[in-house]
Design goal:
Blueprint (H helix, E strand, L loop, with lengths): L1 H6 L5 E4 L7 H9 L8 E4 L1 H4 L4 H9 L27 H10 L3 H16 L12 H10 L17
Parallel strand pairs: 1-2
Helix pairs in contact: 5-7, 6-7
Length: 157
C-alpha cells in the first residue's frame, strides 16, 4: 500500500484500522505505540473513537443486503476472517476443527512442511499441540450426548 501511494506521488495520508471500542487491550496497545510505517502516514481507529462494539458490527451486517451470516455468540464471532488463526485460543481452534475437520488440512500441512524444513521451532505455536495433533484429537472425541433423547412432551395433548 505504501509503495503504491508513493508511486502516485502521495507524501502523506491517513490509514484507518478496524479496532473496536470493545477491544480495550488492543486500543491501549495501539495508542501507546501507533507505529506508522511511513513518516507521512497518520493511523486512526475510527471504530474505537466512535465507541463501536461487536454488537454494533453484528447489527450492521444483520441489517445489510449482504451478510456472511457468521454465528455471533454474545458479541463474539468464533469463525472470523482467518478460520484457525494461531492467535485464537486453542479451545476455539479445537471447536472449529470439530465443527468442520477439513479446516485443519491447510494449517496442518503448512505446519508439517515448515517442520520438515526447520524442525519444531517452525510451528505456528510451540506452546500447544500442533494442528495435526488437534485434528487427531478432534477426530477421536465422541459426542457426549450423541445417544441422548429428550423426555417425551405431552404439553399439546
Amino acid at each position: 500500500m505504501h509503495r503504491y501511494l508513493k508511486s502516485l506521488g502521495w507524501e502523506d495520508w491517513d490509514t484507518m484500522i478496524g479496532i473496536r471500542a470493545d477491544e480495550p487491550r488492543r486500543v491501549a496497545k495501539f495508542r501507546s505505540n501507533p507505529r506508522p510505517e511511513y513518516k507521512g502516514e497518520e493511523v486512526h481507529m475510527p471504530l474505537a473513537i466512535a465507541q463501536i462494539g461487536s454488537h454494533h458490527v453484528a447489527d450492521f451486517w444483520k441489517n445489510s443486503a449482504f451478510d456472511l451470516e457468521l454465528p455471533n455468540i454474545r458479541g463474539k464471532t468464533m469463525h472470523g476472517n482467518c478460520d484457525l488463526c494461531y492467535l485464537k485460543p486453542a479451545s476455539q481452534i479445537l471447536s472449529l476443527i470439530q465443527e468442520k475437520p477439513e479446516r485443519a488440512v491447510w494449517w496442518a500441512t503448512t505446519e508439517q512442511k515448515a517442520e520438515a524444513f526447520a524442525g519444531t521451532a517452525a510451528r505456528f505455536r510451540d506452546d500447544r499441540p500442533s494442528y495435526s495433533e488437534m485434528a487427531k484429537f478432534a477426530e477421536s472425541q465422541q459426542d457426549m450426548f450423541a445417544d441422548d433423547e429428550g423426555i417425551p412432551c405431552f404439553c399439546g395433548d
